[in-house]
Amino acid sequence: MDNDSVRQYLWRADFELGIPLIDDQHRVLVKMINEAQHRLSGDASAAELSEIVNGLLSYADYHFGTEERYAVEYGYDRAHCAAYEEHVGEHRAFARDVTDVARRLAAGEAIEAAGLLAFLQRWLTDHILEVDRRIGDFVGAQG
Ligand SMILES: [Fe+2]
Questions:
Q1: Residue 43, pLDDT score
Q2: CATH entry, 20-36+46-141, from 3.40.50.1980, 3.40.50.300, 3.10.300.10, 1.20.120.50
Q3: How far is the CA of 100 from the centre of ligand 1 (A)?
Q4: How remote is the CA of residue 81 from the centroid of ligand 1, in Å?
Q5: CA of 90 to the centre of ligand 1 (A)
Q6: Whole-number pLDDT of residue 6
Q7: What local confidence, expressed as pLDDT, does residue 41 receive?
Q8: How far is CA 140 from the centre of its chain?
Q9: What pLDDT was estimated at residue 52?
Q10: Which contiguous run of DSSP H or E holds residue 16?
Q11: How is the chain split into domains, by residue range?
Q12: How far, in Å, from the CA of 64 to the mean position of ligand 1?
């Protein structure tokens, strides 16, 4: 991985949704991706990459479950059916894509760490800023 791609992935003020439970979990995800970047900046073995990918996948799964239960608890799924379905669809697509990476790693396929990290950063940033934000706005509007 070249030096340009070892840019830190840091928490941004606009990631904050105002929902402490979800914000805290997003902070953990940002921290995990940042740590993965540091660990993979040298020569990473496939085993190390697998460990990181599996760790991220299981935390992301746990986090998606929290977010979806929260959305249902606050009635977001009923007030915004299509948006909620799209939201859950993004979670499922992420899990499917990252599970596929884990499967390819387990099969001995070479995965480029920089590309994978860039994908994770981009996905999490876009998802928090656009899709997760809608839940924050919805709950915020209810006071
Ligand atoms: Fe989400």
A1: 76
A2: 1.20.120.50
A3: 20
A4: 15
A5: 7
A6: 57
A7: 78
A8: 22
A9: 92
A10: none
A11: 20-36+46-141
A12: 6
Contact 70, 107 (CB under 8 A): no
24-33 long-range contacts, CB within 8 A, separation 24+? 25/62, 25/63, 25/66, 25/67, 26/63, 26/124, 26/128, 26/132, 28/59, 28/63, 29/56, 29/59, 29/60, 29/63, 29/124, 30/124, 32/56, 32/59, 33/9, 33/117, 33/120, 33/121, 33/124
Question: What is the chain's length?
Answer: 143
What does the pLDDT read at residue 5? 52
Separation of CA 87 and ligand 1 centre (Å): 6
CA of 20 to the centre of ligand 1 (A): 14
Distance 134 CA to ligand 1 centre (A): 10
Per residue of the chain (143 residues), give pLDDT as tens: 555 555 789 999 999 999 999 999 999 999 999 999 888 877 778 888 999 999 999 999 999 999 999 999 999 999 999 999 999 999 999 999 999 999 999 999 999 888 999 999 999 999 999 999 999 999 999 87
